[in-house]
Amino acid sequence: MISALKHVTIVVKDQDQALRWYTETLGLEKRTDRRMGKERWLSVGVKNQPWPEIVLQQPSVEAYGQETYDKKMAQVGQSTTWVYAVSDCRAFVESLRLKGTRIVGEPEDKPWGISTLVADLYGNVLNLVQSKN
């Protein structure tokens, strides 16, 4: 039986660049940063929420071989849409805009609250949702 979702992975071109964007721009916190064999295990997560952690994976040819490396790198910017809860969607979008984040769609009133789409530094789309109270 599954008891929890602990980690999700996003493939990145540069872990340090991705770490800065996810912590300094999006406001997540760094969780784990350690060497694991030929790779660096680097993860971030939402403050005060233990799971899931987002693993910022930078593949290497040494760890995967050329064919698998090429397949993994083709995933950059192609992740599924993740939905993040925010307390004030419009204000948060404005703060992201000031930090140079690409806003895919302006915040809109929806039956479930206020919703918008933004893109991370590699083009992965994130859905920001302010739920109705």
Would you mind describing this structure in some detail?
The protein is an alpha/beta fold and 133 residues long. It folds into two domains: 7-73, 2,3-Dihydroxybiphenyl 1,2-Dioxygenase, domain 1 (Roll), CATH 3.10.180; 82-131, Signal recognition particle alu RNA binding heterodimer, srp9/1 (2-Layer Sandwich). It has helices at residues 15-25, 61-64, 66-73, 89-98, and strands at 7-11, 29-36, 39-45, 53-57, 82-85, 102-110, 113-119, 125-131. A four-stranded mixed beta sheet has the order 1-4-3-2, with helices on one face. Strands 5-8-7-6 form a four-stranded mixed beta sheet, covered by helices on one side. The chain is globular. The mean pLDDT is 94.
Essential attributes:
133 residues; alpha/beta; 2,3-Dihydroxybiphenyl 1,2-Dioxygenase, domain 1; Signal recognition particle alu RNA binding heterodimer, srp9/1; four-stranded mixed sheet; 8 strands
Unreliable spans are: none
Shape: globular
How widely separated are the two ends?
33 Å
- Total beta-strand segments: 8
Which band does the percent of strand residues land in?
35-45%
Instruction: Give the helix tally.
Output: 4
Concise structural overview:
This protein has 133 residues and is of the alpha/beta class. Helices cover 25% and strands 39% of the residues.
Helix/strand layout:
Layout: E1 7-11, H1 15-25, E2 29-36, E3 39-45, E4 53-57, H2 61-64, H3 66-73, E5 82-85, H4 89-98, E6 102-110, E7 113-119, E8 125-131
Parallel strand pairs: 1-4, 5-8
Antiparallel strand pairs: 2-3, 3-4, 6-7, 7-8
